């Protein structure tokens, strides 16, 4: 809840006129308790999970019924599918969506209710001024690097025999991943993976809007690497050292015995710790076959 009753008070405290974004933030959040602003993460996550993978799901379903012919092959979604022989029914999509939505609501919703004191303790702020674009970009980079490194080691631990058999095997039910399967996991895994996601903001505190943006970005990235499609026009291909769908699809294809491609965002850790050798051999084999 912002300590300003009017825009004039806010501008007097800032010592300047508010930007349009700051005026909109003041109008929206001035009378709203901070813990409710933090709980927006739950609604944002569920809305994003519902809408963002939908185009990919429609492409997956269209790939099953695409017509034959040379002209159609150019537009056929299966042209870009990493595992073109793997197809899911609408019922499988619905089951995955409902099961995941239930787990996200119970775990993330409950966690949001009990973790707010920690959010305030690390210094996540809700007031004015809003952060600059440069500040937000720098914080996003830090959060991605921190989450990628910690997530790599947690992922490796989840592939130990106990971790896989008791927790991680749920996520690997789909050997050919797709967008809605990105957060499909055991409830314990959802909670465990929240640790590396929140560590970055704990180390480098940010504004509440930046925290929202971080969770949106992280979830979109997870959907992208689980998409099952390798689109040549995907803008993420311009990001240096970004793993992408092709990198993570190999991890799912190998399955529970996989000891390769544990990184969630970049490929640094897999290269440094030698856990990409199988993937590199696989790619070299494909290139020779072509």
Automatic annotation (TrEMBL):
Main localization (coarse): endoplasmic reticulum
Catalytic activity: a long-chain fatty aldehyde + 2 NADPH + O2 + H(+) = a long-chain alkane + formate + 2 NADP(+) + H2O
UniProt superkingdom: Eukaryota
Documented EC number(s): 4.1.99.5
A Pfam family this chain is assigned to: FA_hydroxylase
GO molecular function terms noted in the UniProt entry: aldehyde oxygenase (deformylating) activity; iron ion binding; oxidoreductase activity
GO biological process: one example: lipid biosynthetic process
Signal peptide: none
Segments forming domain Fatty acid hydroxylase: 140-275
Membrane-spanning ranges: 35-59
Localization terms from the record: Endoplasmic reticulum membrane
UniProt keyword list: Endoplasmic reticulum, Lyase, Membrane, NADP, Transmembrane, Transmembrane helix
Membrane topology reported for the UniProt record: Multi-pass membrane protein
PANTHER family: STEROL DESATURASE
SUBUNIT field: Homodimer.
Family indicated by similarity: Belongs to the sterol desaturase family.
Protein name, per record: aldehyde oxygenase (deformylating)
Species assigned in the record: Triticum aestivum (Wheat)
